[in-house]
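To close the section, here is one more complete example, presented without commentary so you can practise reading it yourself. The ligand is PMT.
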Amino acid sequence: MDSERITLLDGKRILLGVTGSIACYKAVDLASKLTQLGVQVDVIMTEAAQQFVTPLTFQAVTGRPVYTSMWTSGGGSLPTHVAHVGLAESADLLIVAPATANTLAKLAHGLADDLLAITALATTAPILISPAMDGHMYASLAVQENLAILQGRGVTLIEPETGRFASGLVGVGRFPETPKLIGAIRHRLGRSGALKGKNLVITAGGTREPLDPVRFITNRSSGKQGYALAQAAADAGAEVMLISAARGLTAPYGVQVIPVESAYQMQQTVLTHQAGADALIMAAAVADFRPRTISDQKIKKTSGNDPLTLHLEKNPDILLSVKERRRDLHRPRVVVGFAAESEDLIAHAREKLERKGLDLLVANDITAKDAGFDVDTNRVVILDARGGQEALELASKAHVAEHIIQRVAQLLGQ
Ligand code: PMT
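Output:
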């Protein structure tokens, strides 16, 4: 994950409660990455946590004092008050990571005998917990019942991972890596965003059109722009379904991914979910043609220098099929297309917007090296159905995505 500022996180105040687990060293990375993303991170360490990592380590990565005792004052927005009140009042979110069985028990039963437990009681901010412990301990009835109590009160559980523990045993209870934790934080903070309660279907990646069991025709789309859109939509509180032909990208936290291969599969999946979608964003680069026949066996080299002739036939146009069904369904309410153009950008894009019945069309000039396929940045012009045209400066695909999602939210709000 790069450390570019993310609107949702920038300037937020997050309390990180660290409890006594060997996974404490990973919480240092979490504190560091959050700080780099523009978050003000205040760390509260229990006594047990300090057996694993010193407060100085967290202070060094956050640039802020670390809180270890409930008998101190200062903290957060109320510097003259006892620490837990100031910290609790000013927090946008409290994440307890790693959370030991002992701290879970305290939180579940309302104990108030250390700074973290008392702050958790005092705060009205959302609380996330990321348990980390040995597999049998995690599976124990006591821990599971405490988790159920906490979840029943609206605390969000970040499921631990399955894998190898420091003990060498294998099971469920491993502390997740930083990107997953940050994803969970984004997901929780975004819940009340502009797209709260809205369902978005987003497509990403380049479709693969098979020739035989080992070969296919595809294009240079990496899926990065589509995944960035899915993340931005999730940040805005949407339920996101990502229909993905991309490979090797990690799905944003909380986003449902449906993997597909070919244009036909993508079309069928989009149409299946059309009626439930408030908005559809087609960022995928869909192959316009596919081999007319798919060989069951690997195609052999031709003898001598004989060329191999491939017969291609047209793929269905997904946006056109959506347009057709939209007349009856009146869904999705907003449809966004992309256009990857190498000449006459605006004219071609405008023609696609009209022909495919789109509300917005995002045109990328793929002749620029820093825009379009595979790179991390994009330079786009957004056209709308009323003839409007908005050119964005070169920006990361994440920022382009945030902007497009804002435009979608505006249209859905109208
Ligand atoms: O994936 P990245 O590496 O991050 O790159 C991002 C991108 C350049 C792929 C993306 O920003 C983009 O421009 N996607 C659309 C590329 C494209 O195929 O454009 P098009 O002009 O062929 O298609 C126009 C629109 O119709 C697109 O929304 C496309 O998804 C859709 N389409 C195309 C063909 C088809 N058979 N059915 C469709 O619905």
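Once you have examined the tokens, check your reading against these statements. Residues 221-226, 263, 282-286, 288, 315, 317-319, 337-340, 352, 364, 372-374 surround PMT (CB under 6 Å). The chain is about 35% helix and 20% strand.
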